[in-house]
Amino acid sequence: MSVSVTLTVNGRSVTRSVEPRTLLVQMLREHLGLTGTHVGCDTSQCGACVVHLDGRSVKACTVFAVQADGASVTTIEGLAAADGTLHPMQAAFREHHALQCGFCTPGMVMSAIDLVKTNPAPTERDVRVGLEGNLCRCTGYHNIVKAVLAGAEAMRPPVVPAAE
Amino acid sequence: MTKADGIGASVKRREDFRFLTGRGTYTDDIDRPGQTHAHILRSPFAHARVKSIDVAAATAAPGVVAVFTGADMAADGVKGLPCGWLIHNKDGSPMNEPAHPPIVIDKVLHVGDQIAVVIAESRAQARDAAELIEVDYEEMPAVVDAVAAQAPNAPQVHGDAPGNLCYDWHLGDQAATDAAFARAAHVTKLDLVNNRLVANAMEPRAAIGEFDRATDEYTLITTSQNPHVIRLLMGAFVLGIPEHKLRVVAPDVGGGFGSKIYHYAEEAIVTWAARKVGRPVKWTADRSESFLSDAQGRDHSTHAELALNQDGTFLGLRVSTVANLGAYLSTFATSIPTYLYATLLAGQYTTPAIYCEVKAVFTNTVPVDAYRGAGRPEACYLIERLVDNAARELGIDRVELRRRNMVPASAMPYQTPVALQYDSGDFHRNLDLALPMIDYDGFPARRAEAAQRGKLRGIGFSTYIEACGIAPSNVAGALGARAGLYESAEVRFHPTGSVTLFTGSHSHGQGHETTFAQLVADRFGIPVDSVEIVHGDTSKVPFGMGTYGSRSLAVGGSAIARAMDKVETKAKKIAAHMLEASEADIEVKDGSFTVAGTDKSLTIGEIALSAYVPHKFPLEELEPGLDEQAFYDPKNFTFPNGCQVCEIEIDPETGVSEIVKFVCADDFGRVVNPMIVEGQVHGGLVQGIGQALMENCVYDARSGQLVTGTYNDYCMPRADDLPFFAVKYHEEALCTHNPLGVKGCGEAGTIGAAAAVMNAVVDALSALGVHHLEMPATPQAVWQAIRAARPSQAA
Ligand code: FES
Ligand code: FES
């Protein structure tokens, strides 16, 4: 038995017929060829699979594709501009050497952007606690925390002086 | 002065763009036309006889292409997985080397052992069908602890390894060591366990096998740190495929830390099965499967004694270790508790007599092999814990005790009593750098302040040394290595002056595409963006040994330097010809080839063009082309070293330890890219901190079940467990025997950190009379130690 699932992925509407047990991450990777979203565990603990579902970060290994039917999904592939200009958070990760093997990176960047959306001026502690659901085995988190703090700064809209 | 793109510059990584935009290509991202999916049925028992396997129902299940068992592979002539290092017993006899079939034949030896493989149209179908395989097991008693495995009535893991013994090995001068103890004024003794760990690279292992009937060629795409080694082991020993018909590709790999060095059963299974079913076969591990099938690390039980003079001079060190190798010999398992461990027991000190004996033992657990540091963290932990306890017992400041015994820079090269010769190192300088970073003098005040808040504060040192770039091949061969330990490189200039650099090293997070390009940029004065690095494909790069043991820059980088020497020599010849000068008159600087004392000069780009458009070449003397290859076999190990200091605060009410500060001052020889080196240190430190405070791989002693088989139970360090680190390095004691002066930095953090953290924990608790605690010092363990030390307050 298959069911039809329609998503708006990185701005494009796509429909696929999938088995009901298909996870969102499987639909992205196996049916849509978006392999930037990774799978690092089978217990919802590593965060390698984080994407944005209707603007909020979710672990795509913990959502069935059918649950996302009709929703809008942003993956790591959808962040940079068409000309390759990186999102400020991606740019901060590069600038601060916040990735080594790169496997945790897509999930880490997606989580970081959501974190900054809800808390535009996080402290070091806020970032560390906010990324608690994302494992990285390479970086020791030092440069990731630095990058997220810098990325938050870069994402903050310039302060417009209040009108007199 | 550092050139913008050259050695010493923190060039931003060239690999980042693809990883940051989701365009990396890891093995599981690859799909091959017509591909099938493999699921491996694994043993639920730690030790059992397999009486029968019935695959009929599974074979008939929807989507199933084939089901294979160990008997099928054996019938096809598939051999066992080989071990790459032969160790000899004390009496000179060879170690026990039991068979290691890719899929078991009649006995399972650990939970997770391979029983059968199901190949189906989809992953889900393969998994569903595996549940239909009926296996009749006769369960047998299991043993998981190496010390228990030596007991007279212990269950026997292998019929041909009596007493579960792989080998009983030793190193050092026993008589001299006994004599040192006989005249010692003081002996510090310690029993300690180096807890078993799981490497947990974030990318689970995966492999895709493919066979082309038209050409008779096999391809294996795999998550490997060393594709040529896999090609050699699998081709020559397991499947009998000649090298020219077997291509092994390791594309982007999501971390390794040792666990992706080895030749694993699944690689042989998918490659063999691809021919059987006539279609590509893909396998990707679930994380739970990684816990049950990736080689694990550490797992030593040790008794150690340090003999000292009254003034604290080290006289002798005696060590007896039981090492758990798990159920089978993983590729390099046997070398870890021997040549990568006992040889490091001098540490940074002048201890004149050392004797170490190691019993390596089989148990019903997942095989153990190298994990970041591999033997050296175990050595460092043992030495540095002993030194701290000795300092406390003798009432000597622990920094002072270390300084009194350190090998001085003036004594280099220094021959240790355990085989190694340190070529360089300035250990006092590391301490000089680190002490102000941690403000050692201010520690008593900080401890007093913490005490007012009800907290226990401790400080811990680890002055470590390690041996990297394991070499040379002839010495390693004499010690039992069944492989060479060189590295290869090819530097190919193109007609327009850009370069493709082929390296036998493999990058899985280390940033070779940047660092190696910097070497070329530095030498020839071209931008890093004109240099492309090719690695990880046996059909493209010369035979290489891959990346492990912090060897890539020291050995792989040196091979690149040698290949660049050859390019330069050739370019000089071409320049001499074109400028109508004698070769001896050509001066080379930053990629310019100039006739001495004139302004006649050519750039490397101009030379490259004429090398490929050799219209006026005297072809008798000068070949066209500018493309050179080198194999570099080091003369000696390199010896990175440093000083790490950890300051910790413990809440006695909860047992929670908080690292308040962690600093390190290291000597990695020449540093090519400081940004990348610091990143390696950060990551390394956290793996050591993880071992000390949270990570622990636990098996149930009776059933042999892996208790910590998911991230629910195996505690991985997370961002909120850690502080920022302060990292410095110096370049005052360069490696003396490789062309770049580099030593390696990949494992240093891990090698030192567990000792620094545990010394800090014990220091914090020492006022209560706690002088040792096993790793990991979890809140529960610390809380219990505190309660046990203060029985009056236990409530
Ligand atoms: S894959 Fe690990 S949390 Fe989703
Ligand atoms: S960069 Fe490798 S896991 Fe984070």
The computed structural class of chain B is: alpha+beta
Q: Which pair has the most extensive contact?
A: A-B, 57 and 57 residues
Number of helices of chain A: 5
Q: List the total number of helices of chain B.
A: 19
Give average pLDDT of chain A, whole number: 96
Poorly predicted sequence stretches spanning 5 or more consecutive residues of chain B: none
Annotated CATH homologous superfamily of the largest domain in chain A? Beta-grasp domain
Separation, N- and C-terminal Cα atoms of chain A: 64 Å
Helix content of chain A: 25-40%
Large-scale geometry of chain A: globular
Q: Taking strands numbered 1, 2, ... along the chain, how are they ordered across the largest sheet of chain A?
A: 2-1-5-3-4
Outline of this structure?
Chain A has 164 residues and is α+β, with helices and mostly antiparallel strands. Helices cover 31% and strands 15% of the residues of chain A. In chain B, helix 14 packs parallel to helix 15 and helix 17 (674-693) crosses helix 18 (748-765).
What descriptors fit this protein?
heterodimer; A: 164 residues; DNA polymerase, domain 1; 5 strands; 31% helix; 15% strand; B: alpha+beta; Aldehyde Oxidoreductase, domain 4; Aldehyde Oxidoreductase, domain 3; 3 domains; 7-stranded mixed sheet; 5-stranded mixed sheet; globular
